[in-house]
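This week, study the protein below.
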Amino acid sequence: MADSDVLAAAFEENREHLRSVAYRLLGSMSDADDAVQDTWLRLTSTDTSEVENLGGWMTTIVARISLNMLRARQRRHEQPVGDFWPGAAELATSNGSASAPARAGIAPGGSDPEDEAVLADSVGLALLVVLDTLTPAERLAFVLHDMFAMPFTEVSAVLGRSTESTRQLASRARRRVRGAPSPDHANLARQREIAEAFLAAARGGDLAALVALLDSDVTLTADAAATPAGRPMVLQGVTKVSRGATVAAARAAMSQLALVDDRVGIVYAPGGHLEVVLLLAANNARMITAIEVIADPERLQQLQIALLPN
């Protein structure tokens, strides 16, 4: 068997593990797949003849790549968006490297939604929210040691810190994870159910379905960046709000559910560039009482966003 075949086989054997590590570190499936792709490129461009444990070596590499991505994201104040935009179509038609597995072992056509759901469920919405509050170093130390049982000596090598310093990072992260108020799972599930119904009705231009979701006194507020006139807007009542939502049906077709801070919201990010966020409020009867449309770039930068799998 040629060396390239050995590397491809080793990569394929570890691919799902690498994606799991990267997803927990980055909270974004597209970012995780990018990190795994980069790991494949490193694997094929590095002399690994003396590497005894290729699986461990690749885990270290994907962790370092993910750490760099986290730090770059933090410097640019960016949120992980783009899991659901042209990526799937592009991956289905991209040629890539002839010697690599399909997009470095990733199935043609992009991430399987069922795989994404499994990964998200294995982490949990509440934990994803809390992980986003950690610094990149804290997140890496906690994820690699507490979630994947990597020894501190190896984690410290990824971080470029002493073993004791790495232990302290993981301990601090552990306290924050255990001490942070976890979102109410039942409440998150209810929010998602309402947001899914709203998005489905808007995508289909189904006015009757939208009206059925809205409280009689529903209010829609939009900042100046979200309106054609460039002025803040307030719509009151079922008729005006439902018409406004159906007019935006084209945008709804390219939107997806996401965790926005600690709430389920809807994001619109054409080409992976975050442009609009919708936040919904509902009463105990599960009727939408308020819709907030956020498009101001400064406000968008302040939001903590993690996409939810379909």
Observations:
- The longest strand covers residues 214-222.
